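Below is the record:
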Amino acid sequence: MSTEHGMASGVPFDSLDTASLPTEEGYAIWRESLSPLFHARLADESAGHCRARIDSYDLQHLLLARSEFPESLYERGLHHTADGGADPLLVQLYMRGGYQGHNGHRPVRVNQGDISLLDMADPLATRAQASTVLSLVIPRELVRDAGKLPCGAVLPAASPMAAILGNHLLTVWRQLAHVGPETLGPVNETLVATTVAAFRGLRQDPEQALAGLPEQARREAVCAYILRCLGQDDLSPEHLCRQFGFSRAGLYRLFEPLGGVAGFIREARLRRCYDELARPGVLGRPRRVIDVAMRWGFNSQSHFTRLFRRTFDVLPGDLLAASEEASRASTDDRSSASTSRPALRQWLARLCREPVER
């Protein structure tokens, strides 16, 4: 199925994947879906294909989407501007890739792990690498009381505030499949409040910003950093102490509620292995158990297998075989399914106060 619509526990969900569509149709639907926000096109339109995917949730007052796309150009001009100054803000966490360009008079450059805040009331022109992005669309009226925010600004990946906001965005994304519509009010409130707080503190000294946070927020910042750096060989308590300015005792106290820092890293790496083995069809992911284990820091396959089975009650090889079989069956189902139009365009049009029929 090229597009999927659903109510994940009551939260409207939409998925667009151009891979199963004819080339020209997939490219046109991708561009049309994003058109309320900006004019999108491939950086190299002669390439002849557009391998892109957008999964999105309609949060009633906000929109949260995860997208993967090839090298692309994005523009927003005066023809996009909404009546009454309703143009939204766009928060983007670049999990892979990056972009450069300008938002109004402000030059913007974003690298992997950075989070940008763009103002859709200003002209926009950016060139993005092949990327994976988590995007949050916030209507302007929801942040009017926050005062002037530094639009066109970027939270660097290594900063504590990027870790806190990025962790919050990713946590909400992962939990949306398990929540009902009755929780969307608090979800919206925390997303807006965390975004405002993160960018308001942009000009603070990073160490002061971290020191002034509650213990839970500091722990979340370190956890987010760990999850972002799981593939690094030098990820250790010593590394974390240097990165965040903790003493070893202070770091251990911070992670006591999670069973210790070493245990947290080990479990996070095991879960990353589980995700890769459970989704073998994702482009670029290794298909051998030992490849996955070594990629995430396990050098002994026998040791990895014991830990994996103890944690998930399944052998990694059995999980890989079952997921490959499920992937083949899913591909067969998608090839026989009819095409439907994605809901993303309507959701964006509503947040941008753009008439859907023009």
Summary: The first helix runs from residue 23 to 34.
